[in-house]
UniProtKB/TrEMBL annotation:
Pathway: Cell wall biogenesis; peptidoglycan biosynthesis. It comes from Ahrensia marina. The active site is at H414 (proton donor/acceptor), C430 (nucleophile). Keywords: Cell shape, Cell wall biogenesis/degradation, Peptidoglycan synthesis, Signal, Transferase. Gene3D superfamilies: L,D-transpeptidase catalytic domain-like. GO terms for biological process: cell wall organization; peptidoglycan-protein cross-linking; regulation of cell shape. GO terms for cellular component: extracellular region. PROSITE patterns: LD_TPASE. GO terms for molecular function: peptidoglycan L,D-transpeptidase activity; transferase activity. It holds the Pfam family YkuD. Belongs to the YkuD family. Residues 321-454 form the L,D-TPase catalytic domain. This is Repressor.
Length: 455
């Protein structure tokens, strides 16, 4: 590397580098110790090595620095006659500007604008925008570091996903629970059961609306408030009515609780209601919590108390010729001899572990308030129970208050102790309805009526 000449004020440099120099040729005959380096004696010339390893050569008489040598790079700065109008206070490298000053244009750099590295070790990087037709390889979503990555095609944008969400046809069903409850009551009166009346827009309401459209082509999904009121008045009056609790409603008998274990159930005198409120809710096809919500602070155990209830109307009494148990729709539909749809009920039909029958069977017998025989050798196994058990009758029994035995042994259409879960849970292969729907159906069928299971 070519040498560069510097004229530098020695006093300033000595302050900056904390050198201790000798000032005469006599002293230069000795080897002197410096705090951060060594002085090498030469006649009239002093040489020092500072704490950074740089070799400083200076004139002992004038105290002028002759040159500075940096051993790491081999760069050498050699002094030349100085400009007396300038005072340089420290050695400067012309290739690099001092800290805080702009760099010379020839060596200019652009600081990269990196985002801070996230602390989450599972974060790799933010994905780049991709073309719609491109595929992306994503890390496997498991703990196996050697798993093969998944290759996925283009995914829909947020806008597409939002647009794909199926919304109810009538927005009133989402933000007006009273409107929804009134619609449920209307459907119940028309024989298109929505299950429990609870003021909620759920799958059972949509099933009932679809069944009504199948029955007579009517679409009630876009009714206005006024139109709904008119429909209600033409089918039995206002949606809600009042009822005075009677002594019979509060006298029971009730049980404190229904055990889950079948062996414990078999020891009870009956599978009765657990409270007057439960009995009243079932009487008016209502969810217990919704009945309580309509009557805040009411004591349902006090005879003579007037409560607000759903005005559901009378049971339908038309002779049924055949029944469809639709597994996919989770619905039971009953038809007369002319093929007219009479009633439709939400249903729980079998499960993966214990599927319901296939094909066509017939109703063999009808039992109201039946007991239930549990036989793990031919049915399912409940808990640790390995013996045959007889569970007493009652609305909270395993088959509710109705049993319609089918020609396929051990299978039937029956009620339930938990009406709010109809169409939303599994059964042990049978067809499960609410108790009130099962009771209505039992009044319309007879032995020999066909039941076709639709996949």
């Amino acid at each position: 590397m070519s040498a560069r000449l510097l004229y530098i004020s020695t006093r300033s440099v000595l302050c900056a580098y904390t050198f201790a120099f000798v000032a005469s040729s006599a002293i230069a005959q000795q080897s002197s110790r410096f705090p951060n380096g060594q002085a090498i004696p030469l006649a009239g010339i002093g040489i020092a090595i500072d704490q950074d390893g740089r070799k400083i050569t200076y004139d002992l008489e004038t105290e002028e620095i002759i040159r500075i040598e940096v051993p790491e790079t081999g760069e050498i700065f050699t002094s030349t006659p100085a400009d007396p109008s300038q005072t340089i206070t420290a050695p400067q490298r012309v290739e690099r500007a001092p800290l805080g000053d702009p760099a010379p244009s020839d060596f200019a750099t652009v600081e990269p604008e990196f985002e801070p590295v996230p602390e989450d070790p599972n974060f790799d990087r933010r994905p780049l925008p991709s073309d719609e037709n491109m595929q992306a390889v994503v890390p496997p979503m498991n703990d196996d570091p050697f798993a093969e990555p998944q290759t996925i095609g283009p995914q829909p944008s947020d806008e597409t996903q939002t647009a794909a969400i199926i919304k109810p046809d009538n927005p009133n069903l989402d933000d007006k629970p009273e409107f929804t409850a009134k619609l449920q009551i209307l459907l119940d009166r028309l024989g298109m059961s929505p299950g429990v009346i609870d003021g909620r827009n759920g799958s059972n309401v949509r099933k009932a609306l679809n069944a009504l459209s199948l029955k007579n082509g009517r679409d009630l999904t876009s009714l206005s408030d006024g139109e709904l009121e008119a429909e209600l008045m033409s089918t039995g009056g206002p949606a809600f009515s009042t009822y005075t609790i009677t002594p019979e409603d509060t006298s029971g008998p009730f049980v404190s609780a229904i055990p889950a274990d079948y062996a414990e159930k078999s020891k009870m005198p009956a599978m009765s209601y657990t409270s007057a409120m439960e009995a009243l809710a079932e009487k008016f096809h209502m969810d217990e919590n919704y009945l309580k919500k309509l009557n805040p602070g009411v004591d349902f155990n006090r005879a003579g108390t007037t409560i607000k209830i759903a005005n559901t109307g009378e049971k339908i009494k038309v002779k049924v010729a055949r029944i469809e148990a639709d597994k996919g729709a989770e619905q039971v539909r009953a038809y007369d001899a002319q093929g007219n749809l009479i009633v439709a009920y939400p249903a729980t039909i079998g499960s993966t572990a214990t599927p319901s029958p296939s094909g066509t069977v017939t109703i063999e017998r009808i039992a109201l308030d039946p007991n239930y025989t549990y036989n793990p050798k031919i049915n399912f196994t409940q808990g640790d129970n390995k013996e045959v058990l007889t569970i007493p009758p009652g609305p909270n029994g395993p088959v509710g208050s109705v049993w319609l035995a089918l020609s396929k042994p051990t299978y039937g259409i029956h009620g339930t102790p938990d009406p709010a879960r109809i169409g939303k849970s599994n059964s042990h292969g049978c067809v499960r309805l609410t108790n009130w729907d099962a009771q209505e159906l039992a009044g319309m069928v007879s032995k020999g009526v066909t039941v076709e299971f639709l996949e």
